[in-house]
């Protein structure tokens, strides 16, 4: 199963970058109806929403992307270790 490891790394890397792009988009004006922006929000919202609920929605600064990226990287390491042992 080690042949899957590069694909798993790429998938997690893409997710990390989509979250970073979403954070950057929140700092600038953009058209929320643009298909590219909608794609980014639709992919990242299911990942970020649970962290936002856990941290509470009353914070001035949303730290959920930072926590999500940290957890995603932990999950990536666990999945890769699991694939190496199979």
UniProtKB/TrEMBL annotation:
Transmembrane stretches, start-end: 63-83
GO cellular component, one term: membrane
InterPro entries the record matches: CCB3/YggT
Keywords: Membrane, Transmembrane, Transmembrane helix
Similarity annotation: Belongs to the YggT family.
Name the UniProt record assigns to this protein: YggT family protein
Organism per entry: Thermanaerosceptrum fracticalcis
Lineage: Bacteria, Bacillati, Bacillota, Clostridia, Eubacteriales
């Amino acid at each position: 199963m080690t042949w899957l490891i590069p694909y798993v790394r790429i998938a997690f890397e893409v997710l990390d970058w989509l979250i970073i792009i979403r954070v950057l988009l929140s700092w600038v004006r953009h058209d929320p109806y643009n298909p590219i922006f909608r794609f980014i929000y639709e992919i990242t919202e299911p990942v970020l929403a649970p962290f936002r609920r856990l941290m509470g929605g009353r914070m001035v600064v949303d730290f959920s992307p930072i926590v999500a990226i940290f957890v995603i990287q932990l999950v990536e390491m666990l999945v890769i270790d699991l694939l190496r042992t199979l």
